Amino acid sequence: MKPPAVKAAFTGREFPRLPLRLPYAVMEAEQVEAIPTGPDWQYEPKWDGFRCLAFRDGDQVVLQSKGARPLGRYFPEIVEALRAWPLEAFVLDGELVVPVDGALAFDELQMRLHPAESRVRKLAAEHPARLVLFDLLVDGERRDWTGRPLVERRTALEKMVGRLTPAPRLVLSPAERSRPQAQRWLSHAGGDLDGVIAKRLDLPYRTGARDGMVKIKNIRTVDCVVGGFRYGENSKLVGSLLLGLYDQAGLLHHVGFTSALSAEEKPALTKRLEKLVEAPGFTGNAPGGPSRWSTRRSAEWQPLAPRLVVEVTYDHVTDQRFRHGTNLVRWRADKPPAQCLLAQIAPPKQAAVLPGDDDR
Question: Which residues are catalytic?
């Protein structure tokens, strides 16, 4: 469920004494293939959460999403924690995360986007969120830091957080200038971490821009059974392949899709797939079942006999499903479908990275 429209919540007059106004476009990162090298870069973990700007002016606190939507009502414990800090004003950039049983749970974040306040409060009590802070835009004296280089903003943020009473809901994200450390973080991406962020130390906070900050993800490959397919929108040709993996009990679970199909191959591929149409397709979790991803089109799919195997690339897994669409690498006629197991996408084990992880 989407939060309410920006117009209904942000008027630009919420914080008359702050130099920044809502909504405010965050500085974004461009995706690259390799971690940049050199003394001009700072490296940080890329957290598996929601990007969030935190505004405070007096008693008023507002949380803004990357897409300029209000988030405060969905994370009341974070609003309360920010209001409890002994500062009259600030604007901070960070990431909302929810620790559950020793790991960050993206599904718990999704569940927070609920219309009922009672439901949100219940979820917040069961699994409180944290705001991982990594940049300073406005300090406690209402001074605008966005025009200053990152090296100065980071130093000021560390001093600001260090002077305040420790708050378990508010933590400072690690930052390193060691590329080997960044590589270690990247090797563990896929669990709590979504990759690595690299930022130029000499650049100001460029609202809405993508230059000077890059993200690197750990792209992996996996062999999947094609358990079904969907036709393209208003088309009689295949639009996407539905991917599955077997559990230890032999059930085939829907784990995602790939739509990386060329126009040239679609006619022949459609005929090939239509010859294999056979229920049930997926014998475990199937498209159209109850999930946060369900849509009207989720039920509009054709089941296939488990004969075809494809190798695809993916970057992140949430609750045994690919977070994003995958890219098709090749067909695997040599691979028996029964060897396509869920164990291939188990999240990597990793040491604690986030401060305070010992109480997760």
Answer: 46
